[in-house]
């Protein structure tokens, strides 16, 4: 309610008082009705005891003008309740009521709604921004955890989660994980150390045993005595020694991963594959197996030729061993590695990870010669060359996919 | 034929001494690197058997010192360090061969024989034709004939036969054959070389012709004039 409205109201009252004095009652009522219905901003009403003229259906109790008081009215045209400010002025035989719709409630409501809307928007925005910042930070840290987990998976047991200065729950989790990893690494090294120590320490007496058996065989051969028993003993001993050597070699390869300080040279994988196929060929020929080669162009990687040769040969040997007679084997160079496929029985999903474990053998392959170190050795060699090995289904058969990082 | 054995382990030293004496070699022994190097520089040996891990002076140091002093005596390294890179290191430093412990005595004897022969015959004779009985190999045209019939060989079979013919009369072991033909240094540990030899035999010994490739049980193969 501003000053202008107050003046206006006083004007209206003065005007109507003047008219009431000058006109007859009938004339006054007539003009008042016109005035009341034409006035948009002001609500005028003239209440006598018999009738109520103007825009109010009944008279509220109002103070004497010019003091104002607020009362609610129902507006048909807007179909809503509004608060108006008005006052009563005795006029002739009735009361003149002047009220102005100051829309305060409406404004208040509108203001309230817009204020709420703005508050809501701000809250959402604030929530989004803080959420974003928070989630980015959290994600970053979670990613840190994931990175470490991946490294550990890849065999880098020395990987640790970074700990920030904040000393929050994530740091607690990180330090717990790090402690766990340290213990794991320690246990792992201890176990590896024990098996290797056993393998290493037993090799010397076994070598001497081997020497003795061999001397014995030579002596008997000179006297033309049968040596079959001694020879089969020697063969078994050689198998044991070979397993020990392989185990020691495996550990060495797995440890070498930590420091890539080997004498790597530029190796042509194409040539390595051709050599390995040349070596296995008579064996596959005897089993009526066919090897298809897809080696369109040389592929050079930094590596150790002998180790890579062993890996390829080992995989070919496996394909030949397990895919059965008349199998089709395919060796294919890819842009960053190679695949070896066969159409044999394949390996079921539950076994795919396990076959890489030391000394693990699939139940049905127990009859086939081997020690369960071949694939472990292959994997160690591939990882030493920053590569990955995956076993996939060839439907039917197995696909071994080797991919080198560079 | 004098051989110097530099080996710190008593059991192995005695075993080598006994085995080599039986083969008719004369043996000198050294139990550490320092003594070994002294003997190697002073004495006149056809071959030196050298252990990698030695007290006082490590085997590789003995080898490099020897080579730097201009001694070209063939050296065969014996070592339990069986990783491939170690092996390569040994060969690079000027050893002529490398055997991993535990080795088969037969393997050692075969390799000693080959080393002494190779150095003794003053490197390979410059020749374009190899001949054993009625088997002839022309190195330039890469053709092989048994009598009048040409024998068609795959590249690796050709190399295999060439190595056997070059060392005809000598026993060669499976691992020697593998290293010579494939040029990778490890022991495939399977009978794969036997399978290759069987295939080569079939090609060379057709129509009931006399056998030229003899199997030496437990050791390897030998090319002979008369089967």
From TrEMBL, chain B:
Domain Response regulatory: 2-116
Modified residues (4-aspartylphosphate): 51
Entry annotated with the keyword Repeat: no
Sample GO molecular function, one term: phosphorelay response regulator activity
Gene Ontology annotations for the cellular component aspect, listed alphabetically: cytosol; protein-DNA complex
Alphabetized Pfam families for the sequence: Response_reg, Trans_reg_C
Annotation: DNA-binding region: 127-225
Superkingdom of the organism of origin: Bacteria
The keyword Phosphoprotein is assigned to this record: yes
Keywords from the UniProt entry: DNA-binding, Phosphoprotein, Transcription, Transcription regulation, Two-component regulatory system
Coiled coil: none
Gene Ontology BP terms: regulation of DNA-templated transcription
Ranges where the OmpR/PhoB-type domain occurs: 127-225
InterPro entries in the cross-refs: CheY-like_superfamily, OmpR/PhoB-type_DNA-bd, Sig_transdc_resp-reg_receiver, WalR-like, WH-like_DNA-bd_sf
Record-linked PANTHER family: REGULATOR OF RPOS, TRANSCRIPTIONAL REGULATORY PROTEIN CUSR-RELATED
Protein name per its UniProtKB record: Response regulator receiver:Transcriptional regulatory protein
Organism: Shewanella piezotolerans (strain WP3 / JCM 13877)
